[in-house]
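seq as requested:
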Amino acid sequence: MLQSPRTGREGDVLAVVSQSGPTVSFFDAASDRHLGDVHVPAEPHELCFDATQRLLWCTLTYHSGYYHANGGRRTELAVIDPDTRRVVELVDLAPEHGPHGLALDAERGRLYVSVESGDDRPGGVVVVDTAGRRPLGRIDTDAPGPHWFSIDPAGRTGYATNKEAPFVSVVDLERGALTAKVEVPGSEGLAVSADGAYVYVAAPYGNFSGGGGERPANGLRVIDARTASVVDTLPTGNVVLPVHLTSTGRLLAGELRMAADPASQLGRHAPGRLTVFDAGSRKRVGEVEVGLFPLTITSSPDGRLAYVSCVISSTVEIVDVETLEHLGRLDIAKLGEPGAHGLAYIPRPA
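struct tokens:
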């Protein structure tokens, strides 16, 4: 019999961004009890926990709104102490702006932050020293809006997905240079395999403009890191935004679903879907219904629990990855649209 997925999580904490809060909320991972909130400047998006420094990094992306419909792009990262639940510093990346995706190389003390293009530069990735909490430089990605970013386990190669640009940018982190462009028809979330051999990319991107024309098939493109080429596609029924790979090799995809609505050209939001694949065999394992517009996925360090933030319903759905049982739902406070966004699982102090 499987042990309860809650066993042994006392003292662990889940951190959740409310984009319109604007807050980072903290929940007990064993009981789901709300522990408190940290108020941050508008408009927080993603989270990344650095266990070495025991600090939580949060991107502050726009003054209001969201991608392609915002009230101006911000330039800061909020640095949060998750134990005392307070902001300890705001790190300004100016003139870089629109920080979004976060990837941590704990061994080298480097945090990588995707940023949007400006009048004088393409989109790119800013390199931040996690000990000194200062930017060290940037790497161009040759695309206007690199949104999600991930690195291989060795910390040598990074991958930026680009919503409108028809490629994934591959960068050499040691040389600080763009080395390849992998043809993909616009892309969203991504995850790198534990051995660094494959990259799983959600494509095509979520285009909500209502434009016509034939769209490429929805799914996860599998990129061979050695050849920088797409070698397989894992099909999904709907457009995928977040992608996450657990420590046990489960590949999690958050599908956005829409229902017909005579009053709206785009339709209305229907419950989303968490689709689970086995990364080794690339076979579909199953699916679980979640909230409206799944946007971020994370998991517990043992890979047993999945957390799916759903930005329109402003909920976090908790799923047992082994049994595909829906275990609970966290309601995240918001002041408007959108709501729940970035996630980070924070193990208790040693």
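Residues 80 and 181 are 35 Å apart (CA to CA).
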